[in-house]
Specification:
Elements (H helix, E strand, L loop, with lengths): L4 H9 L5 E6 L1 E14 L6 E14 H10 L3 E9 L2 H13 L2 E8 L5 E8 L2 E8 L7 H15 L4 E5 L8 H14 L3 E4 L13 E2 L3 H8 L14 H14 L3 E5 L5 E5 L5 E3 L12 H14 L4 H15 L10 H10 L5
Parallel strand pairs: 1-4, 1-8, 2-6, 4-5, 8-9, 9-10, 10-11
Antiparallel strand pairs: 2-3, 6-7, 11-12, 12-13
């Protein structure tokens, strides 16, 4: 089955009534743009002449930004520092319309910021300022209590794990139990070296590297046809046992996506990208589109196909990007002969 433009419109038209809770590591993304005309006399590195800078919500916050761009409602659950960056981040999220009832400000944990230096549309270097979260049992209990309250107002949940400490087993247990009670879908975007019990999750969306890392299977050169890539298919089988998710969606870059379910054969979804400038944040777009589509009534395959088109939009943009409803539908129209 191939999703039609009419079906995509039907699903997206109901997005404005859907509120998705994003649980994960909150960050600020800073971009410093400029040009390079010479090499430093101090070291063999380029000298970037800065033209302008911008800052935007990153990490799990970028998932919320994608939900809003697609016409849905977004709420955030996470932990930030009581610092200037935390104030700026909350302000940007609030201004964009994200619900912030489940955000905790931590007195000693600094807000994470990733700064990318970009020259001539090429990232020169990235500078990270971050610390792994250390949180007491009472603070974790308060955080989980806020999450439970927020889930009562939600139509779906996304656990976005960047491995910075906000996503711990207690958080996962709280989300899965409350989601099962509410009968709403849960998506999990994993960190390959972070082991969590995820039984009952609706969908897990690792990229190829994360999938092989999580399955502890050596990664070889990908086959042109993912359905003939035996190591990849083995990874799918291993992850099905490990996560016990209803579906696992492995994103494969230029090779598209592989959708594995509990019982059926894996299904390959070819890439829709024509030009690739930057894959930053593409995984955030995939899981945002996927879970929002499920909340709107899509099947797992329809959600996968829709998220594949959305990913094709954002990789054609420079920097952490989002995909709007209009961009998604227009992109689908351009590829109408492939649907």
């Amino acid at each position: 089955m191939k999703i039609t433009i009419e079906r995509a419109n039907e699903l997206l038209n109901s997005a404005s009534n859907k509120r998705i809770l994003v649980v994960g590591d909150l960050m600020m993304d800073r971009f410093v743009y400029g040009s390079v005309s010479r090499i430093s006399p101090e070291a063999p590195v380029p000298v970037v002449h800065v033209s302008h800078e911008k800052a935007m919500p990153g990490g799990a916050c970028n998932v919320a930004s994608n939900l809003l761009a697609l016409g849905g409602k977004a709420a955030m659950a996470g932990i930030i520092g009581q610092d200037i960056l935390g104030i700026e981040l909350k302000g940007q999220l609030s201004d964009s319309g994200v619900y912030l009832n489940a955000i905790i400000e931590h007195s000693t944990h600094p807000t994470c910021v990733k700064t990318r230096i970009v020259a001539e549309q090429q990232q020169v270097v990235r500078v990270d300022r971050e610390e792994y979260l250390t949180i007491s049992e009472s603070e974790m209990a308060s955080f989980c209590s806020l999450i439970e309250k927020e889930i009562k107002e939600s139509d779906g949940i996304i656990i976005e794990d960047y491995g910075k400490g906000s996503v711990q087993q207690a958080v996962v247990n709280t989300v899965l139990a409350a989601a099962e009670k509410a009968g709403i879908p849960v998506g999990y975007d994993p960190k390959d070296d972070h082991i969590l019990k995820m039984e009952g999750v609706s969908v897990v969306t690792p990229n190829r590297k994360e999938a092989f890392g999580s399955a502890k299977v050596p990664e070889g050169r990908p086959a042109d046809n993912p359905l003939e890539d035996q190591p990849l298919l083995e990874v799918g089988r291993v992850l099905k046992e490990k996560w016990k998710a209803r579906h696992t969606l492995i994103t494969l870059g230029p090779h598209g996506m592989l959708l594995c379910d509990e019982a059926g054969d894996p299904q390959h979804i070819p890439t829709r990208a024509r030009e690739v400038f930057d894959v930053s944040g593409a995984g955030d777009t995939v899981i945002a589109t996927y879970v929002l589509a499920l909340a709107c009534g899509a099947t797992f395959l329809e959600a996968a196909e829709l998220s594949n088109f959305a990913a094709g939009v954002v990789v054609g943009k420079l920097g952490t990007a989002t995909c709007t409803q209009a961009e998604l539908i227009n992109y689908m129209k351009k590829h109408a002969d492939e649907i």
